[in-house]
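ok, trying the design again with the full structure, not the truncated one.
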């Protein structure tokens, strides 16, 4: 998929490459990744578009074609719903939103709390945690938080429903919006059924990201303070 983002790949094409029947391929892909092949391919295309917007001078139309969209209008709409910003605004803001706002939903249920841990010896840096309706971290989470180190977390006033707790960490020396070649860690727990006044205590474990993990599509809030950035510069020097 990654090497053929500009091509109109079909499920038949993917299954043929994997030497599976179309139905067996789709079933196994969903079982292993948590989402359908078509949805995974769409996520990869948006991820590549984010990178191109931040690292090249290509126009939105050129990027749309490069990642496999025949209509720039369809691309822009899909990008905005997944990332939270239109492509041109995402570029203008350098890949960040001023604030990650949780999705407004009625029927407040309970809270999700727990402890986030990373592999021994890992330097996870910032840890982003959010509750989403699917296994793909896109759009607005229903609740979210950011940790500067592994440890306890709590999300209050979580709407009633079924949510996936998704998280990823960005190395301390990395640009949060450009992590393709970085030692990123991810984690996933769910679905979590949240009911009225329910409290879910979660053991959330980060692990090294793999090629089978859906990419993070939502634009992140730049939460590193000037003091934190200065510490990174000092450590690098």
């Amino acid at each position: 998929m990654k090497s053929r983002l500009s091509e109109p790949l079909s499920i038949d094409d993917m299954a043929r490459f994997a030497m599976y029947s179309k139905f067996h391929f789709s079933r196994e892909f969903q079982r292993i990744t948590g989402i359908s092949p078509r949805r995974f391919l769409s996520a990869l295309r948006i991820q590549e578009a984010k990178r191109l917007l931040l690292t090249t001078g290509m126009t939105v139309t050129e990027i749309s074609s490069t990642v496999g969209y025949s209509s720039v209008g369809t691309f822009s709409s899909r990008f905005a719903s997944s990332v939270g910003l239109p492509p041109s605004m995402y570029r203008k803001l350098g890949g960040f939103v001023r604030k990650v706002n949780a999705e407004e939903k009625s029927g407040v249920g309970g809270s999700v709390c727990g402890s986030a841990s990373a592999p021994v010896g890992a330097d996870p840096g910032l840890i982003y945690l959010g509750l989403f309706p699917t296994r793909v971290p896109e759009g607005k989470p229903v609740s979210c938080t950011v940790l500067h180190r592994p440890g306890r977390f709590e999300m209050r006033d979580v709407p009633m429903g079924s949510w996936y707790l998704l998280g990823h960490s960005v190395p301390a020396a990395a640009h949060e919006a450009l992590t393709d070649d970085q030692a990123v860690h991810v984690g996933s727990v769910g679905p979590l059924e949240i009911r009225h006044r329910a409290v879910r205590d979660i053991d959330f474990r980060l692990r090294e990201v793999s090629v089978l993990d859906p990419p993070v599509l939502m634009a992140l809030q730049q939460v590193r303070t000037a003091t934190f950035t200065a510490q990174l510069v000092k450590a690098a020097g």
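Keeping the full-length input from now on. The chain has a mean pLDDT of 83.
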